[in-house]
Amino acid sequence: xxxxxxxxxxxxxxxxxxxxxxxxxxxxxTCRSGNYQHAWPNTSDACLAITRPDRCGVTGMSxxxxxxxxxxxxxxxxxxxxxxxxxxGPQTDLFCGESTxxxxxxxxxxxxxxxxxxxxxxxxxxxxxxxxxxxxx
Length: 137
Fold this sequence. Notes:
InterPro entries: RlpA-like_sf
Protein name: Rare lipoprotein A (RlpA)-like double-psi beta-barrel
Structural class: mainly beta
């Protein structure tokens, strides 16, 4: 998979952690807010039918299942984190055209949701969204 550029956000799952209350275990059943995990829009046909990144022009998003490792780089500061798939999401088509920038680094359309633990390794949770690139190496 070539690096995919877009936006990174964060979400809560599993047992209470940091800013999160108790939530479900995600599509994979293993999601925990305190772990380095993420949601990916193309984990299955059912997931892709919900998230619809294609409606936003996002192409090249490979099918990856539970446990697959991606690396997300915050384009604002170069910080990078490795996480494994634990859920389906984000629902990219709800945010078509959304853009986040810091300086000249910009990303459009939400392509990955990190758990709070993973997101806080590359950005402040209060930032909410950051431009990013996602790859597999």
